[in-house]
């Protein structure tokens, strides 16, 4: 019922709002209204994707996602980083097919949500909320994979990051890949060569990898992921020697509260908490001008203050160090431009197993 009421408000306001997508894509999408499947991905007939794929079948789809993500973000600013991370975990494993959202598998067995990183994936409820609205508006039309791609994009914009156009028309998977997730999702304990290899295996260059990791400039990290860096690095019984002493003390202090502390990724914030992300609170929810999304992640790496071991590792390779320096050295223009491009690439990853793809799921966590 909450969703329905929200939908009514949405429809009432929606007619007055000019769709942002049309403004931004007017040059490239002018042909797509006459021919819904163009421009399409020529390499793969199973992926008839295009800009504004739902322009005929569910014209308000992208607007519903945009406005409901704005609503969720206004209620809970953690929405944006949660969705961004979910997108990464979906697209990195067999492409952007909504498989990370599944709680069941066509042949039974474990799902991606059961894999190691699952314990901390969040935002499933937000996707369900948006999907319910879409089901009210156009039952059975919009795929969960597209909902995640679109909502993550809106989240990036809401935190002050760049807008980037994305195709829609993804198919939802009927399978969730537990083993692949375990094997392919990068670990926070990986060194820089392993991290670069993992991303290279998905077609990302070192430059693209460094810009993608810039996603860690929003959101927060559970102390669990750096406990070993502070206390018992690689089983040595000692802290990670690469952590500067003052930062080590800060980390140890902030993580000493045992009740699930989280470290915020934004160095400008003033508190650590497990209930909220303080640095968002200064941000007027619907204003997309970036106090938040910026280059502080790279600035932190330059000062040895990366939170994850794998983050700080970017300073232990000549190529990636140069990229970190470049991203940190201007007002954020270079990073935002590269981030927009690499998010388009991440959002268009496809899996190798086309036969697992089916019609849009009605509930994102369940098979139809
Ligand atoms: C080497 C690669 C990566 C590793 C090892 C890694 C690992 C992690 C870990 C351990 C967390 C903390 C989760 C928690 O405490 O809840 C995290 C958070 C996050 N990651 Fe990554 N990540 C990687 C790459 C990426 C990429 C490519 C993206 C997106 C493009 C991304 C987006 C995020 C976001 C937005 C958060 C914050 C989530 C929140 O605040 O709820 N990460 N990551
Ligand atoms: C994560 O997976 C483990 C099993 O590997 C399971 O016990 C746990 O409930 C899962 N957590 C979530 C949040 O789904
Ligand atoms: C990175 O880790 C891999 C796997 O653990 C290891 O084989 C490799 O030697 C490491 N590379 C460096 C430069 O430490
Ligand atoms: C540190 O880790 C190693 C290996 O995981 C373990 O054997 C050792 O007991 C740990 N030491 C401390 C002090 O926790
Ligand atoms: C640790 O807490 C202090 C004080 O609350 C805060 O200023 C600092 O940003 C926190 N550091 C990290 C890495 O979260």
From TrEMBL:
Chain sites annotated for binding heme b: 216
Localization (cell): Secreted
InterPro entries in alphabetical order: Haem_peroxidase, Haem_peroxidase_sf, Peroxidase_pln, Peroxidases_AS, Secretory_peroxidase
E.C. number(s) listed in UniProt: 1.11.1.7
A GO CC annotation given for this chain: extracellular region
Binding site for Ca(2+): 90, 93, 95, 97, 99, 112
Gene Ontology MF terms: heme binding; lactoperoxidase activity; metal ion binding
Domain Plant heme peroxidase family profile: 48-368
Enzyme class at the top of the EC tree: oxidoreductase
Residue ranges of the region described as Disordered: 27-49
Keyword tags: Calcium, Disulfide bond, Heme, Hydrogen peroxide, Iron, Metal-binding, Oxidoreductase, Peroxidase, Secreted, Signal
Positions contributing to substrate binding: 186
Protein name stated in the entry: Peroxidase
Gene source species: Stephania japonica
């Amino acid at each position: 019922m909450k969703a329905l009421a929200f939908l009514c408000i949405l429809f009432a306001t929606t007619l007055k709002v000019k769709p942002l997508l049309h403004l931004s894509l007017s040059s490239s999408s002018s042909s797509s209204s006459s021919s819904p499947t163009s421009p399409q991905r020529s390499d793969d007939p199973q992926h008839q994707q295009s800009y504004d794929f739902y322009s005929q079948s569910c014209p308000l789809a992208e607007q519903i996602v945009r406005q409901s993500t704005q609503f969720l973000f206004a209620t809970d600013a953690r929405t944006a980083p949660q969705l961004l991370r979910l997108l990464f975990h979906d697209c990195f494993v067999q492409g952007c097919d909504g498989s990370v959202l599944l709680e069941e598998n066509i042949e039974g067995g474990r799902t991606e949500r059961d894999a190691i990183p699952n314990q901390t994936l969040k935002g499933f409820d937000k996707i369900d909320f948006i999907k319910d609205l879409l089901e009210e508006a156009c039952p059975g039309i919009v795929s969960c994979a597209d909902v995640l791609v679109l909502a993550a994009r809106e989240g990036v914009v809401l935190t002050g990051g760049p807008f980037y156009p994305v195709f829609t028309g993804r198919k939802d998977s009927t399978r969730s890949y537990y083993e692949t997730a375990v094997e392919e999702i990068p670990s926070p304990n990986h060194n820089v060569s392993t991290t670069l290899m993992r991303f290279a295996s998905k077609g990302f260059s070192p430059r693209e990898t460094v810009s993608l990791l810039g996603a860690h400039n929003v959101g927060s990290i559970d102390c669990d992921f750096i406990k070993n860096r502070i206390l018992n690095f690689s089983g040595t019984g000692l802290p990670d020697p690469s952590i500067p002493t003052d930062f080590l003390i800060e980390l140890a202090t902030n993580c000493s509260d045992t009740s699930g502390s989280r470290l915020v990724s934004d160095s400008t914030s003033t508190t650590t908490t497990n209930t909220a992300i303080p640095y968002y609170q200064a941000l007027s929810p619907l204003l997309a001008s970036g106090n938040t999304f910026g280059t502080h992640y790279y600035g932190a790496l330059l000062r040895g203050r990366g939170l994850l071991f794998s983050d700080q590792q970017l300073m232990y390779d000549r190529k990636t160090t140069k990229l970190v320096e470049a991203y940190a050295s201007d007002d954020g223009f270079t990073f935002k431009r590269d981030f927009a491009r690499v998010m388009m690439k991440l959002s268009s990853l496809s899996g190798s197993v086309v036969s697992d793809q089916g019609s849009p799921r009605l509930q994102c966590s369940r098979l139809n």
